[in-house]
Automatic annotation (TrEMBL):
GO molecular function: 3-hydroxybutyrate dehydrogenase activity
Protein keywords: Oxidoreductase
Name the UniProt record assigns to this protein: 3-hydroxybutyrate dehydrogenase
EC number: 1.1.1.30
First-level EC class: oxidoreductase
PROSITE patterns, sorted: ADH_SHORT, PROKAR_LIPOPROTEIN
Source species taxonomy: Bacteria, Pseudomonadati, Pseudomonadota, Alphaproteobacteria, Hyphomicrobiales
Keyword Hydrolase part of the UniProt annotation: no
Pfam family, one: adh_short_C2
Family to which the UniProt record says this protein belongs: Belongs to the short-chain dehydrogenases/reductases (SDR) family.
């Protein structure tokens, strides 16, 4: 379905991004993976995508804190793979702390990685998409683009911000064959969630087991974590022709969270 297309997925060395990169490759797209991590592990991840799906996969080490590296990532993808047809702005980090104790550097990094990086990559990728008259931009937002939770001021602000960016860009390119959507998962079991459990326990004065049961899954009526495969499958659907009228939408995959 996606043969002859190229997908760039930021933050795809683990978690949701990696599942998206693999799902696009399974549909025949060439992919650019990006993110932090151990060089040997990243190379193994990259090679596995090529071997498993018979597509080209290149790695970009672009740091989502650095606008020039983001622009270069898009430029290199166009030069080496011919185009950027699908862009998934997915890189993200979290920090959990009461707002009056929230470290300023953490606020700045979360806004830069979870929100501003999507502006830079979108800005760089759109001219090529416009020229070809086809594009898909998928921003990994969160249920926290729709509702808030305490102690996550920067994350919730960034995710609400990306919802606004999504709607604005969707309107700007609506007549040009390009859709722009935000996908909003509830809790997905990935390193990002695992790492916030100790700080959440500290901020709320409860045990780590209680965090899982009484904080994370409390919000999810299904009482199950969303899986990375479910999120990736939805991202692939947004790249089909069937989904071409879905644009500017903030789309929950939230196990019933925001129905409450
Ligand atoms: P993850 O920690 O598994 O993956 C995050 C990715 O971002 C990694 O590849 C990491 O290397 C990359 N990254 C972090 N900082 C970076 C930087 N400066 N430059 C480049 N890459 C960087 O987490 P995940 O849960 O898969 O999260 C992916 C996205 O999904 C995030 O935007 C997150 O906010 C969102 N999300 C996650 C959940 C969840 O419950 N896991 C729920 C809703 C939304």
């Amino acid at each position: 379905m996606l043969a002859n297309k190229t997908a760039v997925v930021t933050g795809s060395t683990s978690g949701i991004g990696l599942a998206c990169a693999r799902a696009f490759a399974e549909e025949g797209a060439n992919v650019v993976i990006n993110g932090l991590g151990d060089a040997d592990e990243i190379e193994a991840t990259r090679a596995a995508i090529e071997n498993d799906f018979g597509v080209r996969c290149i790695y970009s080490a672009a740091n989502m804190l650095k606008p020039d590296e983001i622009a270069t990532m898009i430029q290199n993808a166009e030069n080496e793979l011919g185009s950027v047809d699908i862009l998934v702005n997915n890189a993200g980090i979290q920090h959990v702390s009461p707002v009056d104790e929230f470290p300023i550097d953490k606020w700045d990094a979360i806004i830069a990685i979870n929100l501003t990086s999507a502006f830079h990559s979108t800005r760089a990728a759109l001219p090529g998409m416009k020229k070809r008259g086809w594009g898909r931009i998928i921003n990994t937002a969160s249920a926290h683009a729709l509702v808030a939770s305490p102690y996550k001021a920067a994350y919730v602000a960034a995710k609400h911000g990306i919802a606004g960016l999504t709607k604005t860009v969707a309107l700007e390119v609506a007549e040009q064959g390009i859709t722009v959507n935000a996908i909003c998962p509830a809790y997905v079991w990935t390193p990002l969630v695992e790492k916030q459990i100790p700080d959440t326990a500290k901020a709320r004065g409860i045990t780590e087991e209680e965090v899982k049961r009484d904080v994370l899954l409390k919000a999810q009526p299904t009482k199950k974590f969303v899986t990375v495969e479910q999120v990736a499958g939805f991202a692939v659907f947004l790249c089909t022709d069937t989904a071409s009228s879905i644009t500017g939408s903030i789309l929950p995959i939230d196990a019933g969270w925001t129905a409450q």
